[in-house]
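S2.1 Query sequence (Response regulator receiver modulated diguanylate phosphodiesterase)
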Amino acid sequence: YANLKKYLSAQTGAQKLTPRMQLVERELQLAVKQKYFEGFEIYYQPIIDIKTNKIIGAESLIRWQNSELGPVSPAEFIPLAESNGLIIDIGHWVLTQVCEQINNWRKSGIYPLTFAVNLSAIEFNEPELINKIIHLLNFYNIEPGCLELELTERMIMQDVHTAIYTMNKLRSLGVKIAVDDFGTGYSALIYLKQFPINTLKIDRYFVQDVPNDYQKAAITTALIQMGHNLNLKLVAEGVETEAELAFLRQHNCDAMQGYLFSRPLPKLEFEKFLASNKSLPV
Ligand code: C2E
Ligand code: MG
Ligand code: MG
Ligand code: MG
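Output structure tokens follow.
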């Protein structure tokens, strides 16, 4: 498990602020609070139905290009924004951008797709979250089922009862819920069927090299099986090779995203990508 541990600690991030982190934090504060999200943009990574090879949606991923620092990865600035509270503003900006975009795409006749948005723990636990989402759905006249919120196992396991309560409220609006990075958190599987979720996203860690790694293969097939028994949709993250795709197809995974099909794309390129109707190399 050495690799998994290393992978997980890289995801959770360091606690002490290095000079680099202090610089990033200062620029982040400026960009968010004083420059109206200058340099921020949402990218969209297509999600593909494995059986039909059709694009069924996209995951929204934030990008930040800063004049001092160049591109800064969300893996770097999101944890900082969580620790200084900026994530509330950032998260609201992301949801607003995505909802506005869903509305524009619907008006321009792009067929119904599901757009996933990542929520951080702090946003998920914010009392105003539900009202903000109600407002955005109404304001942009969005079919709620077009919006899927991604939560991580870790987030929902912190306080199971409150999480179930909030998730039920979201579901009652018609919004969908996915559990992101599934398999790497504290999977108390016994809770899984109590959570009102629609989708499980199998973490990239398990997908990478899955055909050649019997442990990953065993876990991935078990996750798919279990998810299907609970009537959940399974999405594999980080699919990079034909062999990984073949394995997932053979084991009935429902959908996938990854560099094999497409990297996350700026909105105009995502539109072109949809229009080009590109299908998978078989
Ligand atoms: P995530 O939600 O698990 O997103 C998937 C990450 O995997 C993305 O990294 C995506 O670019 C990357 N990815 C997709 N396909 C492949 C592949 O085939 N190979 C490899 N190596 N990577 C692939 P990204 O965009 O750097 O985001 C990292 C994390 O930052 C996300 O992980 C998510 O936890 C967080 N994040 C990104 N955007 C947002 C946001 O708007 N709000 C919040 N709260 N978090 C965000
Ligand atoms: Mg995600
Ligand atoms: Mg993920
Ligand atoms: Mg991840």
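The beta strands are 40-49, 55-66, 70-72, 114-118, 147-152, 176-182, 199-202, 233-236, 255-256, 265-266. Residues 87-107 form the longest helix (21 residues).
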